[in-house]
Amino acid sequence: MYSRWFNVTVVVLWLATMSWLVMAKVLPLLAIGEPPSLPEIVESQVDNPPVGWVILIDNQRLGWALTETKLQESGMRDMRGRVHFDKLPLGKIMPGWLKPLSQLVGRSVNELRIDARSVLTVDALGHLLCFESAMRLDPPDEVIGMSGFMEGGQLRLVIRTGYASFTKELRLPSKALPSDFFSPQTTLPGLYEGRTWTAPVYSPLWPSKNPLKIIRAAVEGMEPILWNGAMENVWMVVYRNDTGSASDGDRTQQGKVWVRRDGAVLRQQARFSNSTITFVRMTERQAAELVESAGKRWWTPESGAWMEYHD
Question: Domain residues for 131?
């Protein structure tokens, strides 16, 4: 038997890694330059084939991901995603402030098989309307569900486990889009050397009185990387904590994204706790093979896991 604290630990970590990255001018006084707009990012992904990703943690291949964006007949956009780990070292990537909670589990949290699926629905301008996410844990073979919908500037969040469910309302910045930490971004169009912008990152679950942090993004030039057996000269975007007057070298680096000239993201990397998590884009053929093995409706969990919005 696995204790209720086991599920609580996983739920809290999942929520703690949720963030809302504001992709347009939410804080005009702090903005440096203009970031790629959210509608531009969403539209660049619409009706493209699913994109597959290899997931590495500290250079060890531990999982895969699939993402795609589909246009509905109503004009809304569904952003679908699935992340799968055969063996997720949860204790390794858990932030320090959650370590005491992990001790309540009473077992190792480094051998979790996790399968998470989600659908986010946005309007033509990229504004969030609703989302659903379901995560299956093995062990103990249980599904944890989360859904949310926007109402009057508030996100109404509902979380359901096998033991209980609870609801929370959060105020989101306008033009904000929720993104799971493990959901890779497939495109970043409109880059050029020297382009910079700031992005507020909002997470109401951070252990801080101020849930809003400012991240500074900069296109630092072209860099050769090895992708699909060949060298590609791509844009390198670096994300750092914005500490006001500090130079780039003094800012804490949060992550990097390597973007092809056509806007396709080939690789992205981020620090989380004491680990480095890397997503490497698959080729279209590799992604198609993964979709075939994952199933026709690879983004949809078992019947009944969705709570309200998506079938």
Answer: 4-294
Higher pLDDT, 88 or 64: 64
- The CB density around residue 170, as the number of other CB atoms within 10 Å, is 17
Q: What average pLDDT does the chain have?
A: 74
Distance CA 200, CA 20 (A): 8
- Answer whether residue 301 is part of any domain: no
| pTM for this predicted structure | 0.79
User: What b/e string do you get for 123-143 counting C-beta neighbours within 10 Å, with b at 16 or more?
Assistant: eeebebebbbbbbbbeeeebb
Highest average pLDDT, of 33-47, 168-182, 294-308, comes from: 294-308
| Alpha helices, H only, the chain | 4-16, 38-43, 90-93, 99-102, 284-294
19, HSE (Cβ side, Cα atoms, 13 Å):
18
Q: Is residue 303 part of a domain?
A: no
Residue 60 Cα distances to 16, 27, 83, 85, 271, angstroms? 23, 38, 16, 12, 15
Return the higher-pLDDT residue of 245 and 275.
Answer: 275
In this structure, what is the dihedral angle of CA atoms 20, 24, 28, 29, given to the nearest 10 degrees? 60
Distance (Å, whole) CA 164 – CA 279: 33
Is 277 among the domain residues? yes
